[in-house]
Amino acid sequence: MSRTSGDITIISVFMGTVVPVACIYAVINYGLNSVTAAVISIAAIVLAGGVAVVGIVLGPLGHSDDGFSRAERDRLRAMRVHQKATLEELDDIIEVLGEIRDILKSVEE
Asked: pLDDT per residue over 71-100, tens digit each?
């Protein structure tokens, strides 16, 4: 998750939880009208949901890194060449081991 989407997530959690709790606190301790507190709380929760959606779109869903950078492509190409050479060496080893097996069988008989 990028730094921006992390910040947006923190803001949405703050808006969705702290604002309604603060409204309840204001109703109990300061005599805020309960209808006003309910409207503010519902608006904060709805806005927090919208902010969370924006954070998700900017964060994990926003970056489609399907392509590799040039350095990564070069490294992958080098690894493929190395793997191909290793497989060819293994094929040669299999042939040599087969010849050794045949020689050992002929000596046993």
From this structure: 888 999 999 999 999 999 999 999 999 999
Q: State whether 60 and 75 are in the same domain.
A: no
- pTM for the predicted model, two decimal places: 0.53
**Range(s) of the domain holding residue 89:** 69-109
Residue 52: closest CA among 106, 1, 108, 105: 1
104 burial via Cβ count (<10 Å: 0-12, 13-18, 19+):
exposed
Judgement on whether residues 74 and 62 belong to the same structural domain of the protein: no
Instruction: Say whether 62 sits in a helix, a strand or coil.
Output: coil
User: How high is the pLDDT of residue 54?
Assistant: 81
